[in-house]
Amino acid sequence: MKIGKLAAATGVILGAALATTACASGGTDASGGDVELRWIMSADSQAEVDVWNHLADMVHEEYPNITVKFESTPFKDYYNKLTTQAASNDLACIAGLQAQRVPDVGSLFTDLTPSFENTDFDIDEYEPSIVEGLQADGQQLAVPYDLGPYVLYYNKDLFDAAGIPVPTPGWSVDEFMAAAKALTKDGVYGYVADGTPDMWLPYVLSIGGDYIADGEPDLTNDKVVDGLTWVTDLATKEHVAPAPPATGASNWPADQWRNGNAAMYVDGPWQLINAKQSVDFTVGLATTPAFDGTSITTMSGTGFGVTKSCEHPEDAWNAISVIIGPEAQEYIADAGRGFPAYTAAQEHWYATADVDGAKEAIDTALSTVNVYRTTPKWNQLSALLQQYGVEAFNGSSTPAEVLDQVQSQVAG
């Protein structure tokens, strides 16, 4: 309703914004050729902000005439902020782009392929699946810095205290449920999730379902309903998970897990830095539970691109080439910020992650991962599912009713 109208309005102003060329960078010094570039990216903790600022400093070391000014916003609000900046002719020069959001905001970015050719940059050194995910109509809109399958994060200390085995890749739904029930006590839940697709689509895929048909969202088919129902039942029937707050707080499941209020939740490898630096327990990773021996998860990945309104595209590309370059990718791996898209740095990430089960979990998940296809309006769809999903988790609406409501707002 309100969100749908906002998305429609955003589409109109986004189109208008692309017809203009806004000043997306600081002014240049005619005498010295110095340039200041704005860079916008999501960050949900100070630890993440510190990582991005370090990479901005690396750019200035490599190109002394370029100063990169980093701007952050929580992931929940990031893509809305991009479209708002575009509508107000104030879009940053360099921006992060998640593969799932290409259908929604890819039109804000320029094709980087000519930059590759002009600077002998080898895109083949990056993981092919996420490179392809950041393309549209044959254009490379961003170069990836990370990728990764959604995996299960767990609090090893809670498992040890309960005297139950920790999760291992390939563990079953029955094993998951037994653990979740044993861990739910003393105000702590075994699991936590909300209505955002990332949190429950792995269960749809693992039971053999799909959520897209003929290039459009297909949320009302039986297996999508069954997958979401399985997750919401953890709150409404099994009582091993809490109901999300009506406010739709940003990063709520991650916060509940990091605060020790829940033993398990689903997220990507890019959250490892937040976990390791903000918790006082031992972190472990495993795959999502398997249904009849099958565990299929989704994946994600993000890159950086040059926006069409950027007044200094060559300088912006030079900055990006440092931000996603080999040295930066090793730094990302050391920091645990994300599983590197630069393939030569991936083993380095495993060696430095120092998290129980990380390599086995990620390797196992990647062997059957779904590439997480999306459609236009995915940002709107995700926001609506988070909003209305609260009703499915608290029992005031059925999962089928929630999915039907969202489907009706994003169809066509």
Task: Report on the architecture of this protein.
This protein folds into 2 domains: 2-148 and 300-354, Periplasmic binding protein-like II (D-Maltodextrin-Binding Protein, domain 2, 3-Layer(aba) Sandwich), CATH 3.40.190; 149-299 and 371-410, D-Maltodextrin-Binding Protein, domain 2. Helix 2 (46-62) links the parallel strand 1 (35-42) and strand 2. The protein is globular, with a radius of gyration of 21 Å. The protein has helices at 2-18, 46-62, 75-87, 102-105, 113-119, 128-133, 156-162, 173-183, 197-206, 222-236, 252-258, 272-278, 313-323, 326-335, 346-353, 358-368, 378-394, 399-410; strands at 35-42, 66-73, 94-98, 135-136, 139-140, 143-149, 151-155, 212-213, 216-217, 264-267, 283-286, 299-306, 339-340. Helix 9 (197-206) packs across helix 10 and helix 17 runs antiparallel to helix 18 (399-410). The strands form 4 sheets. Strands 2-1-3-12-6-13 form a 6-stranded mixed β-sheet. Strands 10-7-11 form a 3-stranded antiparallel β-sheet. A two-stranded antiparallel sheet has the order 4-5. It is α+β, with helices and mostly antiparallel strands and 412 residues long. Residues 1-32 have low confidence and may be disordered. It has 18 helices and 13 strands. Residues 1-24 form the signal peptide. This is Sugar ABC transporter substrate-binding protein. It holds the Pfam family SBP_bac_1.
